[in-house]
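Reviewers asked in the last cycle whether our approach scales beyond single polypeptides. To address this, we selected a multi-component target totalling 783 residues and predicted its structure end to end. The input consisted of the following lines:
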Amino acid sequence: MELRLTPAERAFAETVRGFFATEYPQDVLAKVREGSLLTREDQVRAQCALQSRGWFAIGWPEQFGGPGWTPTERYIFEQELERAGAPNIIPMAVIYIGPIICAFGTPEQRQRWLPDILESRAMWAQGYSEPESGSDLASLGMSAVRDGDDYILDGTKIWTSGAHWADWIFCLVRTSRGERKQQGISLVCVPMDAPGVRVEPIISIDGTHELNRVTFDRVRTPIANRIGEEGQGWHYANVLLASERLSYAHIGRKKSDLQAIRRMASDLPGDFAETMIEEPGFAERLASVEIAASVIEISVLRALTGEPDAAVISALKIACTEAAQQITELWLELADRYRQPFLERTLSGWNRTLPEAKRFAVPQTASYLFERAQTIYGGATEVQKNIIWRLLARANALPRQGQAVS
Amino acid sequence: MDFTFSDEQVQLRSSLQSYLAERNGFERRVKISRSEPGWSADLWRGLAEELGIIGAALPESVGGIGGGPVETMIIMEELGASLVLEPYFETAVVAAGLLQAGGREAELEAIVRGDARYAFAWAEPEGRYRYHHVGTRAVRDGSGWRLSGMKAVVGAAPWATHLLVSARTGGDIRDRDGISLFLVDPAACGVAMRGYPTIDGRRAADIRFDDVQVDATALVGTEGTSLSLIEKVGDVAIAALGAEALGVMRRLVQDTIDYTRQRRQFGQPISSFQALQHRMVDMFMKLELATSAVYLATLSLDADATERAKAASAAKVSVGQALRFIGQNAVQLHGGMGMTDELPVGHYFKRATVIEGELGSTDYHLARYAELSKAAA
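The resulting structure, written as C-alpha cells, was:
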C-alpha cells in the first residue's frame, strides 16, 4: 500500500495544471468564478479546448479517441479540472452514451455519432425518467412500435437536462411487454429535430432552466438508431448507471470548495468572534465536512483502482452527494442575510449592485437550492439504500478485506 | 397556566384562513410576486379594512383592536401557511413595535389604517446579525440630522412608504451605546435604493444614505440609547417570524404526506415504505417541538430581558433546525417534483431558507443562548 503518487503521476498533474492555467479558455473560468451561468457556446469552447489535447473523452477506449489513462491518471485529471474551477463536463454525450456506443454500437453507429461527440458538434440528452417512472425506472412506459424499418415513439420523458441544447436524445423505450418489467426495454437514439418531438422547459427551484419535459408524439425514428439488441436496453443502461454513480464523486470540487470556504471565513467578520473561522460552531462544522471529504476520497480511490463492489459504489453515491450538500450549507451560513437576493445570472455584470464581499452569496445560495437534486437524481438516496441492503442481505455479501484475488 | 385559544382568537384564525384561501391562492400569489410591484395593494387594503388584521395586536388608542403577542402569533402563522408577500411583519410587528416605544401615535394610526408600509433598515453589509454593528452615522445639522451609511438586504424596502433606520449618534462601530433610530422618507434626497427580488418571491433592497437630511422629529425615542429597544423588538420579531415558520412547516409536512400517499412507484404508494414513513414522523416531531418553542418565546416577551432573550434564541434555534430538516426532506420526498418551480413545496422551502437566515441563524442563536446563560449563571 502506498498513499503517495509516483513521480510520473506528479509530473502528469503538473502538466494538467499548466494546461488549465494557460491553454483552457480563461474567460470561462472567470465566469464560473463569479457565478455567472455559461452559455452553450461557452461549454462547446471549453470542451474543444479539452479535445485539443485529447482529454475530452476520458472514459472511452483509446481506439475510439480516449486518452488511454490509468484510473489514477483519470482521477488526477478530474481533480485538476475541478481544482482549476473549470465547469464539469456535461456528461450526457461523452460520459453516459459515448462509452455505450463504443461498447455496444455497430461500426456505422460509431462512425456516425462518436466523431461529432468528440468534436462537440453534437450535444446529447438522456431520456430515462418519465413522469410516472422515477425511482422505479423499470416501469417506464414510453412505447416504440415497429413500422417497417422504423419505430413509432409515443410517450414523455422528464428531468431531461439540457434537452434544449441537444441535437440527439438517447431514450429507454418499451419495445415489448414481457413478464419482468426490465425485459422489453430498448435503447433508441432520436434526433431532437424529428417531427413530433417537443421540448418544454421546467424551471428549477433556483430559477434556472436546465431541466425539461420532452414529449414524443408519433415520432418516427429508424430501427437502425437502436443501440444493441432489442429488449436489452435495461442491461446497457445499468452498465451506464454504474459508471454514472462514481462520476458524482467530484472530490476535487469538494476540496477546492472547502479551501475557498476556509479562506473566505478567515476574511468575513463573525458575530461573537473577530472572523467567521473563529466562530466555534462554524469551525467545527467546517472541520467535520473536511474530514468527511478526505475520507470519502480514499474510498473513491479504493473503488476506482480496485474491483468495483456494487454496494460500495451505491454507498459512495450517497456519501459524495450528502457531503456536497453539507458544503452548500456552509456557504449558506457565510452568506448570512445575503442568501436573499435573487438575480438573473445570465446578464453580464449581474453582481455589480452587491457589496463585493457578498457577491459569492447569490450563486452559492442557488447551489444550496439546486444541489438538493443530487440526492434525488441517478437513483435517490432511499433507493440506493434499498439496493445496498439487497446486496448485503445475500449470504457472505459484506465486502471483505485482504482476500487473495482469484 | 393555559395554552388554549379564546373564542375570539379561534375566530380570528378562521376568518384569516378563509380570506387568504380566497384571495392569496398559490397561483395568484405567484402572479402577484412576478408582477412589477411584486405585492398586492388590494390584498393589503383588505387586510387593513375588511379584516382589521393590521391593527389586531395594536392598542385601541391608535385605532387597533388591542390584541397582544398571541394574536400576532396566530396571524403570522396563517400568513406563513399562505406565503403572504405583503409586509405585515415589517410594518405591523417590527416597525409598530419600535414606534410604540417611541410614542409615535400618528404613525401608528396610519399603519392601522393601511396607509403606511415600513421597512426597518438595521443590518449592514459587514455586520451579519448583531444589532449594534452600526456604522451608519447621524450627525447634528441645526435642529435636525444628516445620515450617511449603507444598509443591507432591507426586507420590503421597495414597497415602503417609510424607513426606520438605525444610525450612530455616538461611539464606534460595535459599541452598544450611541445608537439612535430615525424615521426616513425613502424618497428623500440622498437615499439610493437598489431593490431586487428575493429567492422567496419578495423584494428587498440595499440602501445607501448619502448626507440625508431629516428634521428633529425624525428621531424616534431618545438619542443614543435605542439598542435595548431594538433588541427587545428583535425578540418580538423572532417570536412572530417563528410563528410564520410554523405555518410554512405545517404546509410542507402536509404536502409531503399528501404527495407520498398519491405518488405510486413499485406498484404501491411510496408512503407505504417505512423509511419514508419514519422520515415524515421525524418531520412532524420537529414541527411539534418548534411549535412549543414559539409558544415559549411568545409568552416570554414580557419577562425580564435575559429570560425573554433566552426564550427567543431557544425558539430561533428550534425553529431553524426544524425549517432545515423539514424543508430539505419535503423536497427530497417530492423527488424531482420538489426541485421545480411548479409545485408549492419549492416555494415554501425557499421561504423556509430565508427565515432560517433572518434575525440570526441557528449557529448565531446557539452562541447567543450560551452567552446569555453564562452571563446569568
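Chain A touches chain B through 54 residues (CB under 8 Å). We regard this as preliminary and will revisit it once experimental data from Aim 1 are available.
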